[in-house]
Specification:
The protein is mainly alpha-helical and 63 residues long. The chain is built from 4 helices and no strands. The longest helix has 15 residues.
Length: 63
């Protein structure tokens, strides 16, 4: 979690928590992907982004 907070959320626990709460309210992985890649403009080739999005994908596959 520290790695993601530092690398993806500017070391802001608040930003990370707010984002995770948003993800929890989303209905699909597609919606989450749209948010991260389009709204936040995350780089899909970034290894930290890839690892984080793997966790997000697992979250939605377990629903």
């Amino acid at each position: 979690m520290f790695r993601f907070r530092r690398e993806l959320f500017g070391n802001s626990a608040t930003e990370m928590t707010d984002t995770l709460n948003l993800v929890e309210a989303m209905s699909s992985l597609s919606e989450a992907n749209d948010y991260f890649y389009n709204d936040l403009e995350w780089d899909a080739s970034n290894p930290e982004v890839q690892d984080f999005m793997d966790i997000i994908a697992k979250h939605f596959s377990g629903r």
